[in-house]
Amino acid sequence: GWKAEKGEKVYLRRHTGNFHEVSLVRPEDVEPGGFETVFPFRESERNDEHALVAALKRADAPVMLIRMRPNQAITKRAGQEDFNYGDLYAYSKICTHLGCPTSLFEQQTGLLLCPCHQSQFDVFEYAKPRFGPATRPLPQLPITVDEEGYLVARSDFIEAVGPAFWERKS
Ligand code: FES
Measured from the CA of 119, which atom of ligand 1 is nearest? Predict the structure, then answer.
């Protein structure tokens, strides 16, 4: 996991192909109906090449950043606070079935698809499973923007990432 120390900033970066290049994301970088894969890393890792590479390789790191269309009806989980930033929603990309990366977002249906065993997650409804063997929603990552307008995580994922058999640190 990448849980930050209290008060430490957790940025979201794109993977540009260059492990050492840090490309941060602003809300306007994602078009309405569009999505992008981003990776959280801690502020303290920014000036440490090895830590930066390790952050990109963390198994639970990939995040699907999705921008809903304006006026898109979103159903959140009962009793749950808002973890989105405007039209932007961030979910773990790691399928809760066996841990494959979900790969495709269908903007018409709001379904995120996992290619391994065809699970489908409904991002119009807190990424709960709609079809296939996955039984748990994709964990959401609470996001906001910092004073420079870059997207940052507000905290760790709201639930454990990946399949239940993954080892967890307590
Ligand atoms: Fe995603 Fe099996 S790992 S459906």
Answer: 4
